[in-house]
Specification:
With 369 residues, the chain is α/β, with parallel strands linked by helices. The strands form 2 sheets. The protein has a 7-stranded parallel β-sheet with strand order 3-2-1-4-5-6-7, with helices on both faces. A 6-stranded parallel β-sheet has the order 10-9-8-11-12-13, with helices on both faces. Strand 5, helix 5 and strand 6 form a beta-alpha-beta unit. Helix 8 packs parallel to helix 9 and helix 11 crosses helix 14. It is elongated, with a radius of gyration of 21 Å. It starts with a strand and ends with a helix.
Length: 369
């Protein structure tokens, strides 16, 4: 039997990249599997999924925010029937929703088409879309066990972890570290702080990095690698040049290899998106997490707690993420190699590097009945 899988992954990279990781793991386990993605015309899937080499079908679902909320009932009905048609045309054996508003139509469409389905929840607390979708499917995969209690009692979620791309999932920080530090240009004896606010950057983290660089501009034992976001890089570079921080801080538009950034870092300063937390855990990177303060239901704070409670990270609130607060934390950590090692080990304890494989195996189990 050739399994046919349809995966809904749309909106942001936080849903798309795990979906791509699951698709790759399914293909590894079942090389003859037929896989199709479903998304909407509004998200990053229109670029990211075809670039990854997978077919993409579109449905007319709308987000849960802004003025479009008024059109949600009609959009859901329309996109659910569109999804049912896609499932029938592809002769799908199973439907998989990776969360977000793009997933609900596929899961409802699967119910209409009598096709087995499952959803994946990447956050430490469930998103609204998955809470709705869970009413339609009983197969719920979780990245973190903290999300389980939020689902209906009739659902028995299974913790599989966050599906990550192979270069991160198979990560060996100690083995990659010498190559990574050489590629980035970090001399022996120099400690590296990696700062990133995600694909779009984060203004507060950019200000923090510039302030830290100014504070440490006369030191030769520390460097900062900052990804400020494409729209902010010119302004950030101007601030670094003006303050003298460019002596110790390199601002880059993107990381050529994320595994190199994680391997070379002694400490990472980042937001607490679900994917970031999962990657830090699997890679064992000591971190200072600054949750995005306007995240719905403050979910980034809950995500951060997964690492903080285990001892793998320190959490700093966005309003408190200033050089005067953060610099002493970093200076203390850099002066205590044993503490850094303990944080690294604690982060790895909560990491699940085989999440994509576990979820792929479950998907194929459903597909094969």
């Amino acid at each position: 039997m050739t399994p046919t899988v349809v995966i809904a992954a749309g909106g942001t990279g936080g849903h798309i990249y795990p979906g791509l990781a699951v698709a790759g793991a399914i293909r590894d386990l079942a090389p003859d599997a037929s896989i199709t993605f479903v998304g909407t015309p509004r998200g990053l899937e229109g670029r990211l999924i075809p670039e990854a080499g997978w077919p993409l079908r579109l449905v007319d679902m709308t987000p849960f925010v802004g003025w479009r909320k008024a059109t949600l009932p009609l959009a859901l009905v329309r996109s659910a029937f569109q999804s049912r048609r896609i499932l029938r045309e592809t002769k799908a054996d199973v439907a998989v929703g990776m969360g977000g508003y793009a997933s609900i139509p596929l899961i409802v469409g699967a119910r209409l088409a009598r096709v087995p389905s499952m959803i994946h929840e990447s956050g430490a607390i469930p998103g609204r879309a998955n809470l709705v979708a869970a009413r339609v499917t009983g197969n719920v995969a979780l990245a973190w066990d903290t999300a389980a209690s939020q689902f209906p009692a009739s659902v028995e979620p299974r913790v599989v972890g966050m599906p990550l791309n192979p270069e991160i999932a198979g990560f060996d920080r100690d083995a990659v570290r010498p190559e990574a530090r050489d590629a980035i240009g970090v001399p022996a004896g120099v400690r590296l702080i990696v700062v990133s606010g995600g694909s779009q950057g984060a203004a507060s983290l950019n200000r923090l990095a510039v302030g830290l660089a100014e504070r440490w501009k006369d030191r030769d034992d520390v460097r900062i690698l900052l990804k400020p976001g494409r729209t902010h890089i010119d302004a950030v570079q101007a601030d670094l040049d003006r303050t003298g921080g460019s002596k110790v801080c390199d601002a880059v538009a993107y990381f050529d290899r994320m595994d190199h950034a994680y391997a070379a870092a002694d400490v990472a300063i980042m937001r607490a998106g679900a994917g970031t937390v999962a990657e830090l855990a699997v890679c064992g990177v000591p971190s200072i997490l600054v949750p995005y303060p306007f995240a719905s239901d403050d979910h980034q704070t809950v995500n951060a707690a997964v690492l903080v409670d285990g001892g793998g990270a320190i959490m700093v609130r966005d309003a408190e993420a200033t050089p005067d607060t953060v610099a002493p934390l970093i200076e203390r950590l850099l002066g205590d190699p044993d503490e850094l090692a303990r944080m690294s080990a604690a982060a790895r304890v909560v990491g699940r590097p085989r999440a994509a494989d576990e979820m792929a195996a479950w998907v194929l189990e459903l597909a094969r009945g």
